Model the fold of this input.
Amino acid sequence: MSNIYKCPNIGNCDKADSGELITIPNGVEPICPNQDCKSKLIPTSGFSPGGKINQPVIIAGILLLVVVVVGWLDISLFLHLVLRAMRRVSPLR
Ligand SMILES: [Zn+2]
Done:
């Protein structure tokens, strides 16, 4: 077994700049193999190539969109019912 890491030292390390995935065997200290860097590596999930967007943000965005759409439909439906009720109440002369 081995773990996949990324170097967080962006701006100072080629491997960090390119988002290169670094595989470190289990039990070995995760240190960047770049001789000029040697930063402590951060673990990645391994299946998201260059994925900087994390799922909670996407889910929150979708939920917000749903809330906005449902809220808007609710308001327009409410206004529609109010207008219909007003039309019905208004006297026909
Ligand atoms: Zn590095």
In short: The pocket of zinc ion is lined by residues 7, 9, 13, 15-16, 32, 34, 37, 39 (CB under 6 Å). Strands lie at 2-6, 21-25, 42-43.
